[in-house]
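quick one before i forget lol
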Amino acid sequence: MPTPRPTAEVRRDLLEELTHSIRAHLLERGESPPSSWVEESANDLASGRTRGWYLTGPDGAGTGLGFYSTRPTAAFGHVHVEPGEEAVQEAFALVQAIRQDLPPNIASLDIGFTGLDSQGESALAALLHHPPERTMMKRWAMERAIVPEDMAPIGNAPEGIRMYPIRSLPRDALVELDFRAFQNTIDALLIGTDRTEYARMLGELIEGRLGRFLDDASTSLVDAATGELEAALLTSEQTPRMAVYLDVMVEPSHRRRGLGRYLVRWGFRALAALGYSTVRLWVTSENEPARALYRTTGFRDVSSAMIYREARSVGQAHSG
């Protein structure tokens, strides 16, 4: 198997072929990178603005691509491989290239994957999984049909609660809610432990970087007496017929009051009125309370994706 070479040494058109393939895989499993992502990513990889590595097969065609970016002390990467007998070993080689290149100030690394089937993911997990510093996280895509019955009234909001549009909220209040809702959970590892990361992520969601934001299918629940933001639902469009629940967040001190269930069901009614036929969401396998809620409201598992996470000692040496 060839050794991965830096993408700065690879022609831009070859990189674009594989970034097209990555986007197709992401769209197929319900994620929504914008169409501009393909060319932007290829340009960044070819110029060296993004650190990346490229693999070619015996015929010279691209077979794998790995890259990463950093945000303060965390790194986030992606590895894609094309189908083939060496796909698992190629994915492993690209992960190793990323690991060895990381700056010494990086305390954590998360890598997502495309191109491997479930058997290939399991084989790669066996090569990479070395607890406690290296773990494999599984995320499930869950899906539900929007049916005519969803147009039926769902009743008033929980007692003492008022609903407000997402864009009417102070952004820092929404950031704080999201931070607190996922604090100390494995889901938080996918975003970061700093509120600035939540602010960046929420900004991208609301600005439509992961699909057109659906204001009419997104809302918040606020305590009418205190003005405290207690829960929120953010929804976007993936296709003209499919919507995605981007974020369902509930203030920890207000759980077990039916707020999450109310938001999920409210979203069904809003999407039915807007003409969508399906709604999808992503949830980690470890978040069983959320998965149970989604199952009881009609969602079913449709696919899964694996994320590699590595905790690193700051100042750890690297060979890149």
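fyi Residues 5-139 form a domain with the Aminopeptidase fold (CATH 3.40.630).
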